[in-house]
């Protein structure tokens, strides 16, 4: 029986999946980098590969035509474990690679040099590599050039992912809204503003918090978090249930973007003078390094943008505060807003 992946490997595989790069058609930008790497390093073979749970898949290849191979035989599965360049000067004399199909069969690899391709979170997704059918090595300048080209591949990946995320904005919004309809089929669907359903109904704090907790726990991205209710109770009042549900799910997705795991608390849920105030707290010891203590990076997020769009309709706003082990997000909504 195959052993399950380690927690770190699972996170790496999840990150690879998030880029949506596997099994995509050839792209000129990647092909150009591969050809340039082969030219600079004076190697007849080069590739950009990505390593999933079972295989090494070649996004771009130069000098050979193998689309993928088993991960257990690949050079790049070793490259992704390295911090810098990984070099095999003669694969036929290397106990790990002499039986690899790339060495024993076509194209008969003897020399390999690869640099890991790391995501912005530090996970190695694959490698940019050059190969030769004769034993070889790279000098210092060629090693540096390969590293620089690998960084260019990473930038392409990030730009590609950013464009894809931007293109998915309406799809995400539509998904959340449709998902909300399934959870709350009784919501009035007569009034729609700006593509967002605006039906409301009278709910009390206990009922509302129960609904939010139930739906948030069932949301796919919440599996790494525990979610608890510590809100203050208030008298029943007219609440924009559907929009509030939408905002809370956006906040949940945002928390999942900045931390690997933790506890999410509905810390405050109060109505005063026609204004709804909500405070959420995320307690975590595993905030991602790029967000640790940096409030300015927290606001540049698709889910915050979507939540902000809804809040502006209710003359509301959103603010946050971050400490080493806690992220606090609060928002308000004017319940009397048209």
Summary, kept brief:
With 338 residues, this protein is of the alpha+beta class.
Please explain how this structure is put together.
With 338 residues, the protein is of the alpha+beta class. It has 2 domains: 7-166, GAF domain (Beta-Lactamase, 2-Layer Sandwich); 168-334, Histidine kinase-like ATPase, C-terminal domain (Heat Shock Protein 90). The chain contains 10 helices and 15 strands. It has helices spanning 7-19, 28-40, 76-79, 101-104, 140-167, 169-183, 205-218, 241-258, 295-298, 302-313; strands at residues 45-51, 55-62, 68-70, 86-88, 111-118, 124-132, 192-193, 196-197, 201-203, 225-229, 237-239, 262-272, 275-283, 317-323, 326-334. The strands form 4 sheets. The protein has a 6-stranded antiparallel β-sheet with strand order 3-2-1-6-5-4. Strands 10-12-13-15-14 form a 5-stranded mixed β-sheet. Strand 2 (55-62) and strand 3 (68-70) form a beta hairpin. The termini are far apart. Mean pLDDT is 78; it is low at 165-170 and 179-202.
Main pleated-sheet profile:
6 strands, antiparallel
How much of the sequence lies in strands comes to 25-35%
Annotated CATH topology of the largest domain: Heat Shock Protein 90
Class of the largest domain in CATH?
Alpha Beta
Tally the beta strands.
15
Q: C-alpha Rg, in Å?
A: 25 Å
Question: Structural class of the secondary structure composition?
Answer: alpha+beta
Count of domains: 2
Approximate helicity band:
25-40%
Termini Cα gap: 60 Å
Mean pLDDT: 78
CATH superfamily of the largest domain: Histidine kinase-like ATPase, C-terminal domain
Uncertain runs with pLDDT below 50, 5 residues or more?
165-170, 179-202
């Amino acid at each position: 029986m195959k052993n399950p992946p380690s927690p770190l490997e699972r996170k790496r595989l999840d990150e690879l999946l998030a880029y949506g790069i596997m099994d995509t058609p050839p792209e000129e930008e990647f092909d150009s980098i591969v050809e340039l790497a082969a030219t600079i390093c004076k190697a007849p073979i080069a590739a950009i590969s990505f390593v999933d749970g079972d295989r090494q898949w070649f996004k771009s290849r130069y000098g050979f035509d193998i689309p993928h191979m088993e991960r257990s035989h690949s050079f790049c599965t070793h490259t992704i474990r390295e911090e810098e360049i990984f070099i095999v000067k003669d694969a036929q004399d290397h106990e790990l690679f002499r039986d690899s199909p790339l060495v024993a069969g076509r194209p008969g690899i003897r020399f390999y040099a690869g640099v890991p391709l790391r995501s912005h979170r530090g996970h190695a997704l694959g490698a940019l590599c050059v190969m030769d059918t004769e034993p070889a090595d790279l000098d210092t300048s060629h090693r540096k050039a390969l590293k620089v080209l690998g960084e260019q591949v990473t930038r392409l990946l990030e730009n590609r992912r950013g464009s894809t995320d931007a293109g998915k904005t309406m799809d995400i919004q539509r998904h959340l809204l449709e998902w909300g309809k399934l959870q709350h089929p009784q919501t009035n669907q007569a009034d729609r503003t700006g593509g967002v359903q605006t039906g409301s109904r009278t709910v009390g704090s206990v009922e509302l918090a129960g609904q939010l907790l139930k739906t948030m726990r069932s949301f796919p991205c919440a599996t790494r978090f525990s979610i608890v209710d510590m809100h203050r109770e208030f008298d029943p009042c007219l609440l924009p249930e559907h929009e509030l549900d939408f905002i809370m799910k956006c906040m949940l997705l945002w928390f999942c973007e900045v931390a690997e795991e933790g506890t999410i608390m509905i810390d405050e849920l109060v109505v005063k003078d026609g204004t709804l105030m909500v405070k959420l707290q995320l307690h975590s010891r595993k905030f991602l390094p790029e967000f640790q203590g940096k409030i300015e990076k927290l606001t540049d997020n698709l889910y915050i943008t979507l939540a902000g769009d809804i809040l502006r309709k209710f003359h509301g706003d959103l603010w946050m505060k971050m400490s080493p082990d806690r992220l606090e997000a609060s928002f308000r909504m004017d319940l009397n807003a048209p």
